[in-house]
Amino acid sequence: MLKVQELSGCQVKIKYILDRIAALVLVVLLLPLLLLIYIAVKIDSKGHGIFIQERVGLGGKTFKIYKFRTMKVNAANMGSGIIIDGENDPRITRVGKILRRLSLDELPQLINIIKGEMSFIGPRPTLKYQVDKYSEHQMRRLSVKPGITGWAQVNGRNSIPWSKRIEYDIWYVNNYSLLLDLKILLKTLRVLFKDDNIYGQSDEISKMV
Fold first, then answer.
1. 41-63 pLDDT, tens per residue?
2. Largest Cα span, the chain
3. 75 and which of 71, 79, 92, 109 could share a cystine (Cβ 3.0–4.6 Å)?
4. Residue 41 belongs to what domain range?
5. At what angle do helices 94-101 and 10-44 cross, to 10 degrees?
6. For the purposes of burial, counting CB atoms within 10 Å of the CB of 56, is it exposed (0-12), middle (13-18) or buried (19 or more)?
7. What is the pLDDT of residues 62-85, one digit of tens each?
8. Looking at the 3D structure of the chain, how many domains does it have?
């Protein structure tokens, strides 16, 4: 893997400090909701309430990402012979549809932020097999911690091709500022109220836990 030059500077340090403080406060405030969602996922379908998967983060280092499970445990074996139709995807559980629509399945990533593995804003963490295909230019997106939301997510989400998403992420890294993070955060809140572009190919079929 190519060596990645991590982004540095005062604004980046402030960003990561604020991330962990805000994530800790949110976990405390949202604990009842988190427990309720976990129980709902367990009751709705067999399997663990939390989906865990290895991802690539800052500097190319791997870590385990946490999400509420939104797909059936045998989803990896259900892709053959069925029609994958966004929200009507039979692999997605009933509770999973609600969680995805409201983006609540991402809430466990607050733990990743507290652990220092992720940020609120940044490129979405990707799988190692994808990173192994990166060019030197594309490796630039690993210069910051991956985020729950990012520039690509507020500019098309799953409606734009993967290569375009990478370019959005690289633009974010090259133009980073706390003001840009604030802009992305505000745009994210607006995007959350839309149902479009939510049901892309789920990473849950890659590894069920």
1. 999 999 999 999 999 999 999 99
2. 53
3. 71
4. 10-195
5. 160
6. buried
7. 999 999 999 988 766 655 555 455
8. 1
